[in-house]
């Protein structure tokens, strides 16, 4: 893959010609070029081939790209000319044409020297789509991100003669919607925001519902509504038309909340435009990450490829490929809703390893099948046992006689005691053998691979003046949390009440505002949910590979600091102090020691300090320190008793980033710093204390030395048989001792039997 070379971008205009996917314009991570032109294709092995084309075209973000007849050129229509750039209402539309043959840009015919009233006004986040009649239809949008007046107009453009024509006024002014041209000449508008005449103003009306779509009829220049079932739609998604009856809504949108609070989505729906029904199929394969501002295109009438985008302050250059639903009947246009899948390779149509994306656990059908198989096997075994019962009985008796083998003249109780002791000793030997194997695997320092959880972190702003955001109803300073899979984790942050306890910092720069991040939500306050990080993003199984914290303040000129201190999940004194949560690993003395150290601000091993416009990166390692408890059993050396103490260690790197937030819109104005945390490894490092010498070790040493001495003496001087009596025989009393004497007297016969208690018979 060449993904590492592909630049990140969001808000670009995507289109396809043949089997090639193009993305023009958009916004880079650090307020980069708005004229970036990217070509993406796939070789025969399915590997992405990246190429940068002529970037001397117009600056355009949130513009629309339309491929012109002949597939030899395309037009980029509208779009923002710069970050937060303002546009004078009434300014003529900006649009340009790129010729692949000439490798050059020209102004869209019909715009140069045109009467401003005879052409559309400049806009962005509008719609522009070519209908089957060869005309381009332009509608809605806003003049700029500064002037968000929703435009309630529509136009057609004829690429053949360069003529714009004003059309009938739509019933709603649409903004951030999508437009899809159907083969019969209708254009379907879905999603985004709208404004109607009965609204007080045309600045951000309500969201357009999935249940009511806007339809434009190119045949008679009329507008209608189409009622469809289901729910609310959100902002900023991408979709493609397919097979004349289905619209794929690659739902990479967000809720258009405050930039500091914005949440992205990654739902996928299909719309049947014959029966006007939404379908939400279950799609196998690795699900895309959640993000908005993506670009999409249809390849070979078979694959939808979409990529790039943004989630909060995270920019993406990743590509996701959807194999579309197959048509099972060309006449009726019936579609197999089980056929779409997310693929890794457009050449083979292969999906990722099923174990990576399939939900954990067994389905009900699999469990039922396993139960049925087990019942059938059990019945077969019972039948075989009954069918061959005599042979089974003989086999059991052979085993019995092989085990039960008393020596001549030995009483029943002695042989029984021998067998019982043999079983006990065998069990102890096996247990010790397992213990030794465990000791080999779990040496004094061992690592267990797990899916990694995140540590807790206390974030404290120092020296930044609190200020209210009246538009969205929250107060600065504030922390934003999102994973690199696009999962928003703001609900894992809790603002702390510093009336209970106010941390101290050496700088004494001013007022404090603190938040507590917990990787696992508390059961008493939330549904139980844990952020899980792994070394590969698989949205069905984990939340990503790292977590991004973005810090926002009202005034970036203030000389404050941000202090982030990390704690293990089960040993976090802040949860006891501020949230009154019980921490089993902490006692009163631990809390007192923490308060003393925290008031002196002496924690240097677990704290990161950020200045304004700093960007930091932290690698953490979750650890467990297992100390031997002071109990007598630990002198034995078998299954020792440990006291497990969770800990976390970090390695950090911080550097100043003057362009921080430059690639964002309004959020960049308030962003003061950013921190990314990631696990050093998806494992918990276990440090286990272990006695070097114990009774088990001593017995082993003594037994080994004794065995060596006996072996040496035997080799040198030969083996001398000892008495056939053991401790059981020598120390027996009463009837037991008399039974041994009787066995010797009754069974001793030189002519017919071996030596009693020596030779088994």
UniProtKB/TrEMBL annotation:
What are the boundaries of the signal sequence?
none
User: Where is the chain membrane-spanning?
Assistant: 230-251, 366-386, 423-441, 692-712
* This protein's UniProt keywords: Kelch repeat, Membrane, Repeat, Transmembrane, Transmembrane helix
The answer to whether UniProt assigns keyword Ion transport to this entry is: no
**SUPFAM superfamilies per the record?**
Kelch motif (SSF117281)
Q: Which PANTHER family match?
A: ACYL-COA-BINDING DOMAIN-CONTAINING PROTEIN 5, FIBRONECTIN TYPE-III DOMAIN-CONTAINING PROTEIN
Recorded protein name is Galactose oxidase
Q: Which organism is it from?
A: Phascolomyces articulosus
């Amino acid at each position: 893959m060449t993904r590492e070379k592909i630049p990140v971008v969001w808000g670009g205009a995507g289109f396809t010609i043949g089997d090639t996917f193009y993305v023009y314009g958009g916004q880079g991570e650090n307020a980069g070029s708005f004229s970036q032109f990217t070509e993406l294709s796939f070789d025969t092995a399915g590997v992405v081939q990246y190429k940068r084309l002529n970037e001397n075209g117009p600056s355009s973000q949130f513009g629309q790209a339309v491929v012109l007849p002949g597939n030899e050129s395309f037009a980029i229509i509208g779009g923002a000319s710069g970050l937060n750039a303002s546009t004078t209402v009434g300014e003529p539309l900006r649009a340009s044409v790129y010729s692949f043959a000439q490798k050059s840009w020209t102004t869209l015919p019909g715009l140069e020297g045109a009467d401003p009233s005879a052409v559309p006004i400049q806009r962005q986040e509008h719609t522009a789509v070519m209908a089957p009649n060869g005309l381009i239809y332009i509608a809605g949008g806003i003049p700029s991100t500064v002037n968000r007046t929703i435009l309630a107009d529509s136009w057609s453009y004829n690429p053949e003669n360069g003529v714009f024509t004003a059309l009938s006024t739509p019933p709603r002014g649409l903004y951030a919607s999508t437009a899809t041209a159907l083969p019969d000449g209708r254009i379907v508008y879905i999603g985004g925001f709208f404004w109607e005449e009965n609204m007080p103003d045309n600045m951000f009306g309500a969201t357009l519902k999935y249940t009511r779509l806007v339809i434009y009829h190119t045949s008679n220049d009329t507008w209608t509504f189409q009622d469809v079932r289901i729910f609310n739609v959100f902002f900023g998604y991408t979709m493609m038309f397919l097979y004349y009856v289905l619209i794929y809504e690659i739902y990479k949108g967000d809720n258009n909340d405050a930039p500091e609070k914005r949440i992205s989505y990654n739902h996928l729906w299909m719309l049947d435009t014959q029966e006007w029904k939404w379908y939400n199929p279950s799609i196998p394969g690795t699900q895309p990450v959640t993000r908005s501002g993506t670009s999409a295109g249809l390849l070979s009438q078979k694959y939808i490829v979409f990529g790039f985008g943004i989630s909060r302050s995270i920019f993406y250059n990743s590509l996701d490929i959807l194999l579309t639903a197959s048509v099972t009947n060309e006449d009726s246009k019936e579609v197999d809703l089980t056929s779409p899948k997310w693929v890794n390779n457009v050449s083979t149509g292969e999906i990722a390893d099923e174990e990576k994306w399939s939900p954990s656990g067994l389905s009900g059908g699999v469990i039922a099948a396993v139960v049925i198989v087990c019942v059938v096997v059990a019945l077969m075994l019972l039948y075989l046992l009954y069918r061959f019962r005599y042979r089974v009985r003989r086999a059991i008796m052979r085993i019995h006689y092989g085990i039960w083998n008393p020596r001549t003249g030995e009483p029943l109780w002695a042989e029984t005691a021998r067998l019982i002791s043999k079983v006990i000793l065998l069990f102890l030997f096996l247990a010790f053998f397992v213990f030794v194997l465990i000791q080999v695997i779990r040496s004094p320092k061992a690592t267990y691979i797990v899916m990694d959880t995140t540590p807790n972190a206390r974030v404290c702003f120092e020296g930044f003046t609190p200020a209210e955001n009246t538009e969205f109803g929250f107060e600065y300073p504030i922390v934003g949390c999102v994973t690199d899979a696009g999962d928003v984790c703001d609900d894992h942050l809790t603002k702390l009440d510093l009336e209970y306890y106010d941390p101290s910092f050496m700088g004494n720069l001013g007022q404090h505002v603190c938040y507590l991040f917990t990787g696992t939500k508390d059961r008493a306050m939330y549904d139980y949910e844990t952020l899980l990080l792994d070394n590969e993003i698989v949205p069905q199984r984990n939340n990503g590979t790292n977590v991004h914290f973005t810090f926002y303040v009202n005034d970036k000129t203030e000389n404050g600091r941000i202090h982030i201190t990390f704690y293990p999940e089960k040993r976090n004194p802040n949860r006891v102090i501020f949230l009154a949560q019980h921490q089993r690993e902490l006692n009163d003395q631990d809390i007192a020691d923490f308060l003393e150290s925290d008031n002196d601000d002496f924690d240097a091993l677990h704290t990161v300090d950020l200045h304004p416009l700093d960007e930091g990166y932290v690698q953490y390692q979750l650890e467990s320190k297992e100390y031997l408890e002071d109990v007598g059993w630990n002198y034995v050396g078998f299954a020792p008793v440990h006291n497990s103490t969770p800990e976390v260690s970090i390695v950090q790197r911080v550097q100043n980033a003057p362009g921080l937030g430059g690639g964002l819109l309004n959020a960049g104005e308030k962003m003061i710093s950013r921190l990314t945390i990631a696990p050093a490894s998806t494992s918990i490092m276990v440090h286990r204390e272990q006695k070097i010498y114990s009774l088990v070790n001593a017995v082993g040493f003594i037994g080994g030395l004794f065995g060596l001495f006996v072996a040496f003496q035997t080799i040198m001087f030969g083996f001398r048989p000892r008495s056939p009596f053991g401790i059981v025989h020598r120390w027996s009393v009463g009837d037991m001792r008399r039974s041994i004497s009787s066995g010797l007297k009754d069974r001793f016969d030189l002519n017919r039997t071996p030596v009693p208690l020596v030779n088994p018979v």
